[in-house]
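Handout, page 2. Input:
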Amino acid sequence: MNSELLITSDGSHTLFVPEIDECYHSSHGAIQESRHIFIEAGLKQCAKSELKVLEIGFGTGLNAFLTLIEAEKAHTQIHYTSLELFPVEIEKALQLNYADGYSTEFRNYFEQLQTSPWNTIVQISPYFSLEKVETDFTTFELNNKYDVIYFDAFSPEKQPEMWSQEQFEKIAKQCNPGAILTTYCAKGIVRRAMQAAGFQVERLPGPPGKREILRGTFQ
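Output:
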């Protein structure tokens, strides 16, 4: 899909897709949104020395980069699997400013996240391995057990097939006990689909510009 580079209110980039009239992140701030929803409400709530993270929608690679940073800071071994049907062009992804202000080491890590080959496991940093899978999540068979799930597909209005009870059930079958799923979408239809799939769901305060988000815990 064609996309346009935009700057959000916290100074970080996002991409706008005219074809579906939707941005990859909130206009109020891409980095603060991703950190709030997926790192603070998700990753940091799972206290293990080794984690398997599943991301639905690699997008710009922002969630992966923020997770890598946390892995290196906390010395947590993270195996990160991300599913994406429409990969962003490498040239455009490398223009994103998420690594600005970080050391050369982390800027190199960000570049590796973007340029690493698809459909293979790559060790990006001492504590972070990445498997980007170019696939349609709705037909893909998950084959691992996960501790943290970032559900970051485009909105239900744009991709309703991604947000069905069937898809959340597919994820639930691959969850370790206590696994956490977070998403920016707080719609009732999504909350009920998560609950029906076996997640204990709670509404949490959202980042700037968003009233609520959802977090599900699998028992």
